[in-house]
Amino acid sequence: MNFNVIFQAIVNGLMIGGIYSLIGMSLTIIFGVMKVINFCQGELLMLGMYCTYVLNSKLGMDPFLAIPIVAVIMFLFGVLLQSLLITRSIRDGDDDTNVLFLTAGLGILFSSSMQVIFGTNYRSVESHFANQTVSIAGAALSVNRLISFLILIALTVLLFLFLKKTRIGKQIRATSQNRTGASVCGIQAKLVYACTYGLGAAIAGVAGACLMTYYYVFPNVGSVYGTRSFIVVTIGTLGNIVGGFFGGLVLGCLETLGALVVTSAYKETLVYVCFVIILVVKQRLQAKRRA
Q: What is the rounded CA–CA span in Å between residue 163 and residue 223?
């Protein structure tokens, strides 16, 4: 196999993995603080894609320029969703079954609502950089994907600075480590939860806006990327933001390299086989540590 072909596949995998990293980090930050597995995270990405589509079709806004607006809309929507529904379903001492069913039901509601509003047709937008490519060490790369990847890097850095330097970021970290201790110190858990869920929704919205520059949206696209988000956080360890970042890149490279080995028709099978292997290996390693 030609080295240039392999290098091209790795570069493409990193670009695709950037979106997986964003959706993975958005899921893991919610779990890290709230200990809630959000089954509608993929649908939040889908809503971000539709927001980008509306801003482009109605206002003529480039999808990259729409990112700040989409982030604000999704943040406010996440805060509202958390305050009105998710917080009410969380009960101390209970299992998470009610929250799991709630988020799964919300995912169905969101996808069904978009189907009613926009129909089942695939919809796309066009950025100012459409069909433009650059060459990196001999590998051809779409400008849209490159910009999306750079946005991932910038957003990851900003997220770490936010959690490390800001007051609310420190409160989020404190609550994730010990909710009781944080409450004793005067930190309002409900406010932290609302901000955390809003932040997770905003990151998913940004991922959707970036994805719209070279992909299309339809009501069930959330289930596709929602499934991948769970693979990402499993690879990188659920609740670990750094793990979510690198887990997405690993998954992207696994898909593109797998397409070279088993052809694109079977790359999904290869990804899920590797996913099962990772689960088994991690389970055995955890068992050894406990022993």
A: 29
Nearest partner of 205 among 49, 53, 57, 100, judged by Cα:
49
Domain with residue 272: its CATH number is: 1.10.3470
CB 56 within 8 A of CB 264: no
Distance of CA 228 to the CA centre of its chain: 9
pTM: predicted TM-score of the whole model, two decimal places: 0.90
If one counts the domains in the chain, the total is 1
Q: Return the amino acid letter for 4.
A: N
Cα distance between residue 267 and residue 260, in whole Å: 9
135 backbone dihedrals φ, ψ, rounded to 5°: -110, 125
Which parts of 68-207 are beta strand (E)?
A: 133-136, 139-142
pLDDT per residue rounded down to tens, the chain (291 residues): 577 788 888 888 888 888 998 898 888 888 877 777 888 999 999 999 999 999 999 998 999 999 999 999 999 999 999 988 887 777 654 556 778 888 989 999 999 999 999 998 999 998 888 778 888 777 788 888 889 999 989 998 999 899 888 988 888 888 888 777 887 888 888 888 889 999 999 999 999 999 998 889 999 999 888 888 888 888 777 667 888 888 888 888 888 888 887 777 777 787 788 778 877 887 787 777 776
The distance between the two most distant Cα atoms of the chain, rounded to a whole number of Å, is 61
Q: Can you tell me the distance from the alpha carbon of 155 to that of 255, in angstroms, rounded to the nearest whole number?
A: 24
Tell me which residue range forms the domain holding 101: 3-290
> Quick one: tokens of 187?
């930190």
Provide the 3-class DSSP secondary structure of residue 250: helix
